[in-house]
Every structure is written in structure tokens, then in C-alpha cells.
Amino acid sequence: MNDAGLESKLKENGLTDKEIIFIDKCSGREKTPPVETIRQLYRIFFGMSVLLLLLTGIAVYEFFNSEDFVAFLVAYIIAVVLLFLFTPMWLGVKVFLMVRKHGINYLL
């Protein structure tokens, strides 16, 4: 990461070196500034949270109205595991909390 100030701000807010390197690689691959990659992580986390809430709402509905809830529960568990495996949700949580605390302009 080129900007030492941005890197120190990310470390102050609980991001590890490995996560900062991941953000740097993503921004290099997409040829975008690291701040834009952080914005994308924020949006990904928000979108995946909405999807998770939607899936949970469907699961609760199926629990009360379905006779074959076990099959749906297995599919729900698989979907949640895949959601956490293939999206950077934990990094998104850290970025979300940092942006909510300081605002995105804090990183500029």
C-alpha cells in the first residue's frame, strides 16, 4: 500500500497486516485506489447482511409453516457457510464498523 497514513489508520481500527495486504491486492487487481476498495467492501458487507436477513426470515417462515423443515434447514446452513466462505464478510464487518465510527472521509 502506497499511503502510509491510510495503512496506519486501518491498523488503528483493528485490521491485520494480512487484511491490509488483501485490500492492497484487490485494489491493484482492479486498478482502483484502496479507499474505493474499502467502499466496495462496505457495500458487499451491507448487501450480504441484507441477503442473510432475507434468508433468515424465510427460514423462520418455513419453520412455522412447513412440515419438511429439515430439508430447508440443511439448504440454509449450506447457503450461510458458502456466504461466509466466498465473500469477505469478516473484513467487511471491520470496514463497516470503522466507516460507521469515523465516516469514509476519515480515510482520505
How would you describe this structure to a colleague?
Helices cover 81% and strands 0% of the residues. By secondary structure, it is mainly α. It has one domain (4-107). α2 (17-30) crosses α3 (34-65), α3 runs antiparallel to α4 and α3 (34-65) crosses α5. The model has no long low-confidence stretch (mean pLDDT 86).
Show the helix and strand layout.
Elements: H1 4-12, H2 17-30, H3 34-65, H4 69-86, H5 89-102
How many E strands? 0
Task: Give the end-to-end Cα distance, rounded to a whole number of Å.
Answer: 14 Å
Helix content: over 70%
Strand content: under 5%
Overall form:
elongated
- Poorly predicted ranges (pLDDT <50, ≥5 residues)? none
Number of domains: 1
The number of helical segments is 5
| Largest β-sheet summary | none
The chain-level structural class is mainly alpha
Rg calculated over all Cα atoms:
17 Å
Mean pLDDT: 86
Order of helices and strands: HHHHH
Brief characterization of the structure:
The chain crosses the membrane at residues 41-64, 70-91. Keywords: Membrane, Transmembrane, Transmembrane helix. The chain has one domain.
Features:
0% strand, mainly alpha, 108 residues, 5 helices, single chain
